[in-house]
Amino acid sequence: ALFAGTDTGSLLRWDLRENETADRTDNVVAVPGNKGVTALAMVFGDISVAVGDAAGGLATWSQIWSGEGEDRVQALRKTHTLTSHQSPVARIIPTRRTKALISLDASGGTHFDHMTSENHLLALDAPLSLAGISGQGNGLIGLAADNSLTVWKIDAPHPEISLKTLFGKVWYESYAKPEYVWQSSSGTDDFEAKFSLVPLLFGTLKGTLYAMIFAVPLAIFGAVYTSQFSTETFKKTVKPVVEIMASIPSVVIGFLIALWLAPIVEKGILSIILGVLILPLIFVTIMAVLRPFYKTPTLQNFCSGHEFLLLTPVILLATALAMWSAPLVEQWLFAGNFKQWLYNDLGMRYDQRNCIIIAFGLGIAVIPIIFSITEDAISNIPPSLTAASLALGASRWQTIWRVVLPSASPGIFAAIMIGFGRAVGETMIVLMATGNTPILDWSIFNGMRTLSANIAVEIPEAPFNGTLYRVLFLCSSLLFALTFVVNTGAELVRERLRKKYGRY
Fold first, then answer.
1. Do 214 and 263 belong to one domain?
2. Which candidate among 8, 126, 223, 432 keeps its CA 20 to 30 Å from the CA of 1?
3. Number of domain units in the chain
4. HEC string of 25-54?
């Protein structure tokens, strides 16, 4: 492409690629107020053009695609505004390895700025008529009006990093709008590195949230049943088995859910969704049918401590009904393809390695921790409390809900927070089973990239003391800070709960 600026502030572009004759494709007002364009230069990579004007302003414009399909068009858009000069910009000199550039104004002032981060790296008061920069971007040579040469050493090893590039939206080259993007490397030398940590923080919280939604109810209600309803023999069998689950290596869990469970879930995703909906309905129906017979001595003796035996056939029946009805429902409601309907109608793409898989995987790792601590907290409630509640006429469930759980709430809350910390810091499971795509999407049908998995993926290829290397250390610091803040807050809440209910 050929770019030209006018005395009235217009920026023109001609496309020279397709036709022998140049066609002008853009005519935009780059400088308002009829102030002329005084300097132009292509930024490294030849995608963006730096524009200096008579008012001392300096900005970059990029060729942006807009629209979809056949309506896609390419147009110039102003993407970055850099530090202004006090007088008209006379010359712009781009570096040959980064997106940084040097600009000189009419009075000899010199600025050194980075396009992506908009960092103002250097300002020289020495009046220069000409300037040049070394190939590595670490040296500047300037020619003064008296024909004297001066050389400066530039120490700016990480010009592309700022708080905005790490935590804010940045308008990257060829992107339609400012976005949060993590992309640390590419196959070309003119690649514009993208180091936004927002997708990684989002992925960490997203995976942890779905894992806790799956794990917390199972672990807490399982601990309540084991401690308060089951027989002593059942308790002595279940608790050691669950605690042994905590010793399973996370790499084994990640391997199994990524290579064995994920394909099964992909084939039966509609059956799983229907099973979640059908199971409560069948359970409530069976309980309603059995309620008139529950007061009979035979059924009471059978159910006391063995209620799970009634639930087992319910789960099997719901599973069979869901598997049988899934093809019929898919054909009737989703035109024979649930995943295609999901994409066409809801705009949600189904990935094999998604948050459903992560919920199962992290749940296996987190449930033993929450279950064990919760069960210990409930079992340590003084028997006198439950005996007093039952003596006053409360049912077993009322006693558990209004006496046992409030008294054990400090321990239960501590269990949840410890499980949360385990889920936040987990590496191998999320590394093997998420797809590791740093996206900002709450959909349960796609994956994400977490801080811990990002460190494991990127650190082998990060040059020592380079920008990526240091950003990964920042990721680890953020992970530590997140865990520290959560655990500190949890301890404060636990202490308040202990003071509130500890007197009982």
1. yes
2. 8
3. 2
4. EEEEECCCCCCCEEEEEECCCCCEEEEEEC
